[in-house]
Design goal:
The protein is mostly helical. It is built from eleven helices and no strands. The model has no long low-confidence stretch (mean pLDDT 91).
Length: 198
């Protein structure tokens, strides 16, 4: 739908129409990206949030259930955007969590003792994998990445517990949210393999 036309519609979009738009756009992006061998197209798809804005992507997919293609893409793009905006914190949490989650570290594919540029590279590679590789593997890598980050966030919360209990509580909630995201991405990978991620 043309954005100018959408702006003229009264009220919110009908939920069924919003769902249809989410699925149509997600399927179009994934299938177009997977059908091309042009690295510039893939780079543009990976940078979707940077070019279109997080609000536009959220408007398309944020309300989609986690066990759908638009819901899975939304989680991948939000994860990449967090890494892009705060790579230092992400790298620090990853380093804290890696010792306690070595299996997830191997699946995520992050270099040993990653810095900000390393976590950015992995986030881009995971999202590129949606369009150039096995989508289920990309989802599993993202899930593993989230598990390691969740472990690091939990360790960070433990360290903050005495100094700043409020920050520790926020970190603990953040760790729980990352675990939930990891589980949702892993489930989406299973559904894709079964041909049921729509």
């Amino acid at each position: 739908m043309d954005p100018a036309v959408a702006d003229e519609l009264p009220g919110d979009l009908d939920p069924a129409l919003r769902d249809e738009i989410a699925h149509t756009t997600a399927n179009a992006l994934v299938h177009h990206g997977r059908a091309t061998e042009d690295p510039q197209v893939v780079a543009r798809l990976v940078a979707l949030v940077e070019t279109e804005g997080l609000d536009v992507v959220a408007g398309m997919w944020a309300d989609s259930p986690a066990d759908t293609l638009p819901g899975a893409l939304w989680r991948l793009y939000v994860l990449r955007e967090w890494v892009r905006r705060d790579p230092g914190t992400v790298a620090d949490r990853y380093r804290q969590g890696v010792a306690a989650a070595p299996v997830h570290d191997v699946v995520a594919g992050v270099v040993e003792m990653p810095g900000p540029d390393d976590v950015r590279t992995v986030a881009d590679a995971v999202l590129s994998g949606v369009y150039t590789g096995d989508l289920a593997t990309a989802l599993e890598r993202a899930a593993a990445f989230c598990q390691v980050l969740a472990t690091g966030a939990a360790f960070d919360a433990d360290h903050l517990d005495v100094l700043d209990p409020g920050a520790a509580a926020r970190q603990t909630r953040g760790a729980a949210s990352l675990v939930r995201t990891a589980e949702e991405l892993a489930r989406a990978a299973q559904l894709w393999r079964a041909g049921r991620l729509e």
